[in-house]
Amino acid sequence: MNRRAIYFSATIAAAILSMPVSSEAAGQLRVKFSFDGLATCDQPAVTNFPIHGEGTGVLSTDRTAELDMNSSIEGRVQYRAKLGGAPTEAPLGSASLRVAGRNTLHAVRDYPNNTVSITMTVHGNACAIKIESRLKPGKRQYTFYNGSGLSYCTKPTITRSSCESY
After folding, report:
1. Beta strand pairing status for 142-145 and 150-153?
2. I want to staple 21 with a disulfide (CB 3.0 to 4.6 A). Which of 29, 76, 129, 147 is the partner?
3. How many CA atoms lie within 13 A of 42 on its CB side?
4. What gap in Å lies between CA 41 and CA 134, rounded to an integer?
């Protein structure tokens, strides 16, 4: 099976696009994160395909954010964005990052049938991460960019996620 065809981790990678970060140092907040999950898709046909991703994010005082991630599906990806800006174009959709409070950032990856959002809250060296996938009204399958088109899947299952500031 072509792992790249699954490309399911793009769901998380793009959702985390311009991810919130933590631990104040030299005008920057930094975070390390990781996640595991399972993908079950009709197209391509795959059941409980294991995914894993990990990386770092940096939020600078100039309101720019960077994400460097490596996953078992797509390898290494890097993203850069400006906080508060309009959603940026992403394959078959868009991505955005918003400040949701003094210690909370919210990233959203928009796909044709659904959105994936990540909320990260940092207090000192503690970090909490929440990942949610929601269908758009009238849609029945989740769609995710797979590197060459769309994969059609059931709701993704995130089995573990963690973050820590550094």
Report:
1. antiparallel
2. 29
3. 8
4. 16
Is there a contact between 8 and 109 (Cβ–Cβ < 8 Å)? no
Distance CA 111, CA 92 (A): 6
Q: Residue 102's pLDDT is what?
A: 66
pLDDT value of position 82: 76
Residue 109's pLDDT is 86
Backbone angles phi, psi at 20, to 5 degrees: -65, 155
Is 146 in contact with 1 (CB distance < 8 Å)?
A: no
What whole-number distance in Å separates Cα of residue 72 and Cα of residue 26?
32
Are the C-beta atoms of 124 and 165 separated by less than 8 Å?
A: yes
pLDDT for residue 70? 79
As a whole number of angstroms, the distance between CA 83 and CA 100 comes to 11
Spell out the residues 6+ positions from residue 122 whose beta carbon is closer than 8 angstroms to its own.
Answer: 20, 21, 22, 23, 29, 31, 103, 104, 128, 165
Average pLDDT by consecutive 10-residue portion of the chain (166 residues)?
A: 38 39 56 90 92 82 78 68 78 79 77 88 84 94 85 92 89
